C-alpha cells in the first residue's frame, strides 16, 4: 500500500514538474525568442497551439545557448578580470 502511494506521489510530482517546466517556462521562452527572431511573425494564433513541442524545444535550445555563453565568458574573460 505504501509503495502505491509513493508511486502516485512521484507521478503527480513528475506531472507538475513537466507542466511547469516544459509547458510554461520553456514554451514561453521559446515563444518570445521566436517572436524576436521573426519580428513578431511566428508563432501567432493557431501556430502557437499546434507547435507547442517545437516551440518548447526552441526554448530549451535558447536556455542551453545562454548557459553556454555564460560558461564561455566565465572561463575566458571572467577569470582575467
Written overview of the protein:
- By secondary structure, the protein is mostly helical.
- It has one domain.
- The chain has three helices and no strands.
- The protein has helices at residues 2-37, 46-50, 52-80.
- The termini are far apart.
Name the helix and strand elements from N-terminus to C-terminus, one letter apiece: HHH
Beta-strand residue percentage? under 5%
Give a short account of the largest sheet: none
Q: What is the gyration radius calculated from CA atoms?
A: 18 Å
* Rough outline: flat
- How many β-strands, per DSSP? 0
Instruction: Find the structural class using helix and strand composition.
Output: mainly alpha
Total count of domains: 1
Specify the number of helices.
Answer: 3
- The mean pLDDT is 89
Low-confidence stretches: none
Please summarize what this structure is.
With 81 residues, the protein is mainly α. The chain is 86% helix and 0% strand. The chain has one domain (2-80).
Protein traits:
81 residues; mainly alpha; 3 helices; 86% helix; flat
Amino acid at each position: 500500500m505504501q509503495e502505491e502511494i509513493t508511486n502516485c506521489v512521484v507521478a503527480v510530482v513528475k506531472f507538475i514538474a513537466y507542466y511547469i517546466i516544459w509547458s510554461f517556462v520553456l514554451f514561453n521562452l521559446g515563444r518570445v525568442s521566436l517572436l524576436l527572431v521573426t519580428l513578431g511573425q511566428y508563432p501567432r494564433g493557431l501556430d502557437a497551439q499546434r507547435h507547442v513541442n517545437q516551440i518548447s524545444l526552441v526554448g530549451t535550445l535558447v536556455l542551453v545557448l545562454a548557459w553556454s555563453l555564460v560558461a564561455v565568458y566565465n572561463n575566458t574573460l571572467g577569470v582575467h578580470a
